[in-house]
Design goal:
This protein is mainly alpha-helical. It has eight helices and four strands; from the N terminus they run H-H-E-E-H-H-H-H-H-E-E-H.
Length: 172
Amino acid sequence: MRMIVAALCLILTCGGMAAQPRGGGSSPPTALQIPASLFEKAVACIKDFEGWHGNHLPYVGYGHKLLPGETFTPDMSEAQADSLLRADLMKLCRMCSRFGKDALLVATLSYNVGHYRLVGYGKIPKSKLIQKLEAGDRNIYHEYISFRCYKGKVVPSIERRRKKEFRLLYIP
């Protein structure tokens, strides 16, 4: 019961955040401006490649990493895991909204590799992908696919995932 209440609170909190007005001139697209069909493709792609994490703590559901204070357990229902995935992806879309029509693509990559690994933080520099997008260059296929390594070696399954994500979510 606590898990259901926590998931509902998370969804309501995230949903309320998207409705907040932005100050300043023209604002970037909000997460709600992403076409629903494209968002559904991203969710399906993440589910397909992440799979069910079962009892692989600190990850639960479809790859949600438990944060301090969260009480989600590995025995959550598929509906709860789906709801958590959608809330996480929507949050990342809002964080990536400055990338315009590439927001969902960058958010989907962030779900797997981590947001700060892309945009930089502290000693972590900005990725070349983000540098190109900030410069207005959308020729990012090779930079996107470059996030296919583990411990310095190319992993074929990760490379397939990146290629499928790019094919599904890149808007020319």
